[in-house]
């Protein structure tokens, strides 16, 4: 069940056991970090980090995390590499594999990440694509587990655009046995192929992954309410249309009132207060968004250590 030398492109590709292992190792590494215990499982190793999209949390958490694990991260912006001048992804993959021990990529095209993984001979980690955001969704599972202890049988309701975040949450919930409802309007619902794959995965853990247009109906009895921006990077030209279509799909006090009393509110950030979430909810007692943001560090450290370390963790 080892993850050594594997890629992390989609949570769909992981087994139930592998997801549990990532969460367990993340907890272990978080504890070591808090206690000041050395955990340099990647000493002497190097990570190439390719960025086509702007980033705060992804860049800082991967860079700091790899450094804390004893390794050396290298930031590679598209514009400053030959990728930005048209070098084929497969050539970059084969060249970087001769230099580094792992590659993390944050980009637009999911196909580019798959091609990178196909041609690279070192582990490739998907730091985000337009289709998926696996490291964030695994982080969310850790955050919910820390707060509610049990994941299996819980209900997560995702509110808004059925985007890469919704897709990865569907896969993550399916692997941990958490029921998920994606509350999205027509035209903004998740990819039907991803939905079908997640529903197939969910059979193994006995949970349900569904889509619902009625936001209040969806949120009834929720243990977790989750949202993301209405307009993702690369969709700025559609902003006005999206604002109109998604206007009613907001996490606010009224929606929180139909959820369970202990309901957690998560957001992958950056947040647009007053759009997909209100200020009162984001800054309120149900919000765990900054604990969630911190956990990107610990989960990604677990992923990198499991994929790249020869030591037992």
Topology:
Blueprint: H1 16-35, E1 46-51, H2 57-68, E2 72-77, H3 89-99, E3 102-106, H4 110-119, E4 124-128, H5 134-148, E5 155-159, H6 164-176, E6 179-183, H7 192-205, E7 209-212, H8 215-219, E8 224-227, H9 239-245, H10 253-256, E9 264-267, H11 279-282, H12 289-308
Parallel strand pairs: 1-2, 1-3, 3-4, 5-6, 5-8, 6-7, 8-9
Helix pairs in contact: 1-5, 1-12, 2-12, 3-4, 5-6, 5-12, 6-7
Concise summary:
This protein has 313 residues and is an alpha/beta fold. The protein contains twelve helices and nine strands.
Give the key terms:
single chain; 313 residues; alpha/beta; 5-stranded parallel sheet; 4-stranded parallel sheet; 12 helices; 43% helix; globular
Give a structural overview.
Helix content is about 45%, strand content about 15%. Helix 4 links the parallel strand 3 and strand 4 (about 125-130). Helix 1 crosses helix 5 (about 135-150), helix 5 (about 135-150) packs across helix 12 (about 290-310) and helix 6 (about 165-175) packs parallel to helix 7 (about 190-205). With about 325 residues, the protein is an alpha/beta fold. It is globular. The protein has helices spanning about 15-35, 55-70, 90-100, 110-120, 135-150, 165-175, 190-205, 215-220, 240-245, 255, 280, 290-310; strands at about 45-50, 70-75, 100-105, 125-130, 155-160, 180-185, 210, 225, 265. A five-stranded parallel sheet has the order 7-6-5-8-9. It has twelve helices and nine strands.
